[in-house]
Amino acid sequence: MMRERPASEGVGWVPVSIGMTAAIAVASIIVGFGWLPLQQRGEEFRGVWDAICSAAGLVQVSSGTEQVVQADYPTTRIELTPQMLRNPSAQSIGRGATLALRCTMCHGARGLSKADTPNLAGQYPIAIYKQLMDFKSGARASAVMGPLVSDLSDADMRDLAAYYAYLPREAQPASGAPPQIVTSGAPVRGIAPCGSCHGALEVKVGAAWLGGQPSDYLRAQLKAFSSGARRNDIGEQMRNVARAMTAEEIDAASRFYADRP
Amino acid sequence: MPSSRRLILAHLWFAFVGFGAALLLGEWQMYIRSPLHTWISDPEWYYRSVTAHGTTMAYVLPTLVAMGFGYFVTEVALKRPLIGLRWAWLGFALVALGTFVAIIPVALGRASVLYTFYPPLIGDPFYYIGVVLVVVGSWIWVALMGVNMYAWKRQNPGAPVPFAMFATVAGSFLWGWTAVGAALELLFQIIPVALGLRSTIDAGLARVFFSWTLHAIVYFWLMPTYIAYYTIVPRAIGGRLFSDAMGRLAFVLFLVVAMPIGIHHLFQDPQVGAGFKFLQSVFTAIVAVPTLLTVFTICASVEIAGRLRGGKGLLGWLATLPWDNPIMLGTAFSFVMLGFGGAGGLINMSYQLDSTIHNTQWVTGHFHLIFAGAIVIMYFVIAYDIWPHLTGRALDSVRLMRAQLWTWFVGMIVLTFPWHYVGMLGMPRRMAFYDYSDPAIAAQAAWVTMSVIGGAILVLSGALFLIVLVRGQMAARIEPGLYRFSVALREPRTVPAALNGFGLWLGLMVALTIVNYGFPIAHALATPGTGVPAVMVGVGR
Fold this sequence. Notes:
The complex is a heterodimer. Chain A has helices at residues 13-39, 48-56, 90-99, 104-107, 125-137, 145-149, 154-166, 180-183, 195-198, 215-227, 237-244, 247-258; one strand at 3-5. Chain A is an all-alpha fold. Chain A starts with a strand and ends with a helix. Chain B has a two-stranded parallel sheet with strand order 1-5. A two-stranded antiparallel sheet of chain B has the order 2-4. The model of chain B has no long low-confidence stretch (mean pLDDT 94). Chains A and B meet through strand 1, helix 1 and helix 2 of A and helix 9, strand 3, helix 18 and strand 5 of B.
């Protein structure tokens, strides 16, 4: 009959197992936090403690030689979150409708026009709000929009965004099958599918709904991103994408979205 | 026959039906991304499928197999009815409910975030709540395993806990603690954002929490396989277990060193210091100790069987092994895949070597070879071995079983070897679309096609597996006799108290977790400005 041997008999399991585990841990800590960091070339540690802090993942205090690179042009200042501008009040939409009277010349009485300007009816409020903010701060340059938004308050811009988001989109039949650039992008050239942010596949916060936008406008914006004339895309994602796109791809994407409801 | 056989069958059937469905999804994913199919034009369908495949295969299948097999071991090894049968049914109900709660939003395309969650991606809250229900259900099992073992010990003071039970409880305790990381991530980080209570998430901290679970969960998946190696294989092939104490030592070592090593999944993550990456690499390497103990013990046990059957000479015993026995066959396949997968794993766990294959298809190939190969093939073996004792019916489609195990082995090799290779060529993982017309990757097309064929063989094998089980369910009634586990070659007279309980090892496990994870977690919590805006998935379609 088997029996359990009490801990008091034979080798001391408790001290041996704890001792071995601790020895491995301590030896690894000495190597990983002391010896290895000090062997790294190109790291200038001011003593062992500095090396230990680095290995522990503490943020190093900059020695002053490395400056954070600041863009030499105005950049977007707003932070976008998915919950922003959700569920606006009826008053907000109403104020937006009044403010929008001065936009009708280009953007149409109900947010739709044939003037090759963006159709704003049914656009995501976050996208409208961000562009208004960027026009105002100068992050996005426009001789027309700049002066028009200069006197708008933050609340005005939120109201305008709420109003245009509230308007119905243009009802037009769906266009044909999307081109490859919209559904697949071009992975080897680092181009994400247009549809993964701008609709058709998925929508991401801050990206505009492109359906029904004038193709001339879309083409012009892609070219502006490509040349760097427009640079209010946070993280340069649109500039990187547009630079890698061929003229045919720009054309195909612009026409697809223009023909889409 | 165990009195809880309906409970066990419920677990296993639910697991295996889910497995069959998820297997089809896996092959579909392989196929539509391959050069054999034109692009489906919507990557979301692909990610939806990957999420369902991963959630079912990684959470539902192994958890239910471990639970069902654990209840089986409890009754058979302790030779008494399960304590807490009603609680066990509640646990099963929670897992089953959680599965549906999670999979419905996935099917609707509202939670295509993959089973590893990947914050700041945030999907439908019900997906995460479903996963939490699965985990909570499995925690009931963890508690029941402990309760049953300690109740038995109280009734049998001074007697060693039967090895099969000891190993099962080790596996359950490992899971109980390892699931805490993902639970913390879900409850305190992801679910509040998914419910709209917060709009930002510390993705770095979330990844650290998930890494707590992510590697040890692999050892939890492995536990039923290792238990089968030690307690089923030697008996089934007419041999003896080489050493009972070696087995116990291997399982307690898994408990200690399997847990605090997950940061090797974060080698490229900037929020964790290099020192902790090194420290956890060391402990990852030490997992080789219980693994090699097991490989040695099982090879020795199999050699005993070969020699008892008349095998002579250095390798002559190999020829006399019962190769027509599905359990022998499956174990050999499992060992081959464990060997290749383990060798690949050495690359993943090395800080510098990992950088050559990080986030490539190598990684996908690796975990399929280890989990879907070495581990899951033993789930089949376990099912074949215990099925007659659960159904009271004969399971005699032996040719079909052999065909099933052969196809699973061949299919898995054909699937994963090209996967490893294209990974070395730099093919990234988690991509829905590859443009094979581009000369840069055109050469990979043939290898990807090979993987698709491997996947098709696996689908065939999965179907054979379900056919064998269904036929077993409808076969003639038999008296399966007394089920028994392997007996040790030399039955030890005494077992050290340390290898008959878990106090010492659980203490070491928690202490090492604190040493290896305490600072990175505390540092992330204390660092301001680490939140990033959540990216909602599936809202704008």
